[in-house]
Amino acid sequence: LWERLSKKEANDVETVQKSIVHHVTTTLARAAYNMDNFSAYQAVALSTRDRLISRWNETQGQLSKADPKRVYYLSLEFLLGRSMDNALLNMGLKGTYGKGVEQLGFNMEDVIESEVDAALGNGGLGRLAACYMDSLATLDYPAWGYGLRYNYGIFQQRIVDGYQTEYPDYWLNFDNPWELPRLDISIQISFGGHVQSIQDEYGVTRHNWIPAQSVQAIAYDVPIPGYDTENCNNIRLWRSKPTKTFDLTSFNEGNYEKSVEDATNAEKITSVLYPNDNTMAGKELRLKQQYFWTAASLHDIVRRFKKSRREWSDFPDQVAIQLNDTHPTLAIVELQRLLVDEEMLSWDDAWEIVTKTFAFTNHTVLPEAMEKWSVPMFEYLLPRHLQIIFDINLFFLQKVEKKFPNDRGLLNRMSIIEEAQPQQIRMAHLAVVGSHKVNGVAALHSNLIKTTIFKDFVDYYGEDKFVNKTNGITPRRWLHQANPKLSKLISDTLGSDKWLKDLSLLKKLTTKIDNAEFRKSWMAIKRHNKVRLAELIKIRCNVEVSPDALFDVQVKRIHEYKRQFMNILAVIHRYRTIKSMTASQKASVQPRVVIFGGKAAPGYYIAKLVIKLINSVAAVVNQDPAVGDLLKVVFIPDYNVSVAEVIVPASDISQHISTAGTEASGTSNMKFVLNGGLIIGTMDGANIEILEEIGEENIFIFGCLAHEVEDLRHAQRYRGVPMDPALQGVISAIEKGVFEDPKIFQPLISTLTVGKDFYLISADFASYIAANQAVDTAYKNQEEWSKKSIRCTANMGKFSSDRSVKEYADDIWGIKSYPIVDEG
Ligand code: 26M
């Protein structure tokens, strides 16, 4: 009976409509005549959720029985964006739901746009986690993500008087249909207190952590359906709550206020996502988040392992744990503690299990982003974990000393503890020592970490521990969903949609490059996408831009190393050039719309000034009649995943212009090129591999190389290399007050002082201007441009996150796909 009643629902319009109407009248308790787009969204979401739940149950049931090795992806950020369109497309239900919704009197696009983004991430690292979850599910890998369920995601950005202002992102206002609360799954997590050391009956010293406080971790599951498969994976997000005893103690003592305060403190742990990207804040609450999350996740993983009644030595054959940056590194220490203190394994047996289980991905070489925790703060929160870290360090340094005797400098450099005032725990060193594989995220970056931050570790462990896994993006969201017209053209041209699961098939588009008809369709889709973006710009910025101009885009977190400052300086240069032209000279200028977007960390003063400068320049340029449509500048506020889905398909050229050696990979570069956008960029991160795939004729490269950076900085500092003259002119214009009160921008201009220009804007400026001119010239030849555009898309197969995830599975995790059988 159970089996018959739980049979899979059919994929026909009437079944779908029945389910939607059912949710309107029951779950939402609404009448059909009283519906707006948002209620329609809610009903469709609830109906979609029903389908997700049955797939989730089927998948997790079959996996529990078979119990294959699983991978756990630990990430403090999952930047999922919207879920509805993606879920419907992946489950093959979009067509049916689309029809059903339209017949009920709604516009599917409006319904889809009623959903708020799940913005539980800052940028690249969090979106990468989301793309990897999509690929893991699509490739039928048994994989779970673990993260935190923040009440507030990344802040919302508004521009007030040209300045960024931050507003809370309370995304759970209207309930979240994409999560399944597991209120029965509750894990107690402890903090503080002290360590009791006693000798057991064999004379072995045992350490017992007596914590001072504890909170509960409650599980919320987010189903992740694969594309064109029954498989449905899971992201488990933890929410903090006060424990019952915790809030009752004070209450029973008659201190009601104290009990409420304690409860609030417990809930604070998962209250807000830290809005820093590539910088380390060192805040106690952040450390609490990290321990809360890693302890709850490990407890859950260990509980699942124990159900199988295997030996502890089998643990690494059942479990692979990937650390997304150093944020979850405490998991290494927590597993060692569980095995030694609670499961009574010997230190060495435990440590072998730990190091075989973990692998670590590094996402940055910027020194300010390296996580370090002050020893006194750490000891106060996690006294037993501190002891274990010191022991890990002691045994590690003893081995280093054995291999390279009498090298104090080396021991100091490699130590997990930095000898500062106070001492600091270097989380990256701990992550390397506790993992069996360490990877970078693009070829250049993986080589850089081997020769810089982890050089000593390569000498000690050997090359094999350090590997490259070039990032990738999911073509399902970033082409099929975001650019449905291009997706359809590709499928029609290739005769199938198989390319969505094997992106290398795009290569066949090359045969169509000389087909004028095809090129016309290709460019018409680009124009359609530009019209859509122009509408968004009109609404958000109140600026009218022509879809016939060249759309030039730089959207990403605002950071000095990404050099949005250099971009706006070049825009000023362009403005000044146009202003100096005669009417006949102007006639040959390629019209351009320069589009910026991105958030600055709220405490990052210089980054926020860059936003102000962009808006000040936009205000002057956009209303200058001498310029007209030749140049428009816009800053699109509140850049996020759903805005990116509109911007990416509409770009002609996008800017990936970090100082060589600073951008670990970049992933938006891949999204733009996959959508037939060209790029202007430096020899940095994945730009280099994109160049290798698409050919140097199809990318605009400029600037110094990574190995030249050190010398250039040195020369600037000690030989006083003068500032680039074009740049000098631009700065003079700002200083003369062409764009608002120049006093405002003085701190920004100071970063360009000879000897202080750390990101080498001056050194790269001339070649940057030249590259931009080459873009203008190339764009004027629309036929050649369209060929380049098609070649770009055709050669992007490598950058599917399916390829990345397969490499991780084969070379690091040792897991196999486990297809779920449809028993519907
Ligand atoms: C650290 C400490 C305290 C608070 C926040 C952080 C923190 C948060 C996010 C530090 C770094 C964070 O993200 C870094 C990041 O997004 N790196 C990017 O990762 C992408 C995926 O690998 C790469 O493509 C980008 O090049 C890299 O900048």
UniProtKB/TrEMBL annotation:
InterPro entries: Glycg_phsphrylas, Glyco_trans_35, Pyridoxal_P_attach_site. Its cofactor is pyridoxal 5'-phosphate. Its EC number is 2.4.1.1. This is Alpha-1,4 glucan phosphorylase. GO terms for molecular function: glycogen phosphorylase activity; pyridoxal phosphate binding. SUPFAM superfamilies: UDP-Glycosyltransferase/glycogen phosphorylase (SSF53756). Pfam families: Phosphorylase. Keywords: Allosteric enzyme, Carbohydrate metabolism, Glycosyltransferase, Pyridoxal phosphate, Transferase. One of its GO terms (cellular component) is cytoplasm. Belongs to the glycogen phosphorylase family. It catalyses: [(1->4)-alpha-D-glucosyl](n) + phosphate = [(1->4)-alpha-D-glucosyl](n-1) + alpha-D-glucose 1-phosphate. Allosteric enzyme that catalyzes the rate-limiting step in glycogen catabolism, the phosphorolytic cleavage of glycogen to produce glucose-1-phosphate, and plays a central role in maintaining cellular and organismal glucose homeostasis. PROSITE patterns: PHOSPHORYLASE.
